[in-house]
Amino acid sequence: MHIRNNYRMSTRTEKVVFFGIYICLAMIFSYVEAVIPISMVIPGFKLGLANIVVLLAWETYGFSCAVLTDIIRIFITGYMFGSAVSLIFSLSGGILSLLMMCFIKKLRIFSIYSVSITGGVFHNAGQLIAAGCVFKTAGFIYLLPAYTIAGVATGLVIGILSDIIIKRTSVYMSGVKGGNE
Amino acid sequence: MKKSDIILAIALIMLSVIVAAAARYRNNDDTQDKYIRIETEEGLYGTYPLSEDMQISVMAGEGYNIIEINGGRVRMAQADCPDHYCERMGWISDNGQTIICLPHRLIISIYGGEDGIDAYTE
User: Fold this and answer.
1) Torsion sign, CA atoms A76, A78, A81, A83
2) ipTM computed for the complex
3) Cβ-defined contact of A156 to B9 (cutoff 8 Å)
4) What gap in Å lies between CA B79 and CA B86, rounded to an integer?
């Protein structure tokens, strides 16, 4: 625990530093996912690695930091690797998943796994809704069960990873409210 | 992994299936958005909604074709082409289905409805 004492900075500087690190990490995760396509089974299928960073930011500095990390990440990656349409998809998925994760977290009866699963499921749902609006059809709703199952699976993986990462890094961060639960 | 996590995961999957099933059920008798396109050798002859019953006579090639729309379905009621394959194709009602009268180079195709994506890209 002596490490923690050595890492004491002014809270403001610390926040700026970690915020920068979070956005960078989230961007790199998005980039890795864009470069390595695992979208063989279902088109647009992604692991959602950036959600690890969002959950970590949430644990460390609260909901507003998580929202900012995710939204800034979406705008920067959309600007760098995406198009206007893909930005709309990511943004609607991101906003919906953040709102639903906040709701689930506020209920206090679910662990971080549930928060992550909710994030994965509603990220997909938000993108399907956006696709329905852009292409002016309700046909995308039939894809919902497949994407929900995919969202639960990826959300669980991300939840497990986030749990491990938050528990192991909490030692180094004075702003941490505590690991899981 | 708590019990509540498993319940949430199962609930989300079930909810998505219910939403998709409800949408399917609601769309089943939905002929409102569907329309047919009739194309001849000269290009597009016309588009007609599938929701209104009517008969359309088309002078195509050297002959005529009579197309009948009835109860959200469409068929080739009569044609004076030599093979009459188009008449034998019967009723069609789903998005993407076609009736083709090859001798007269006439194509009837259905667009719109629940899989409107195809209508968007055509």
Assistant:
1) negative
2) 0.76
3) yes
4) 8
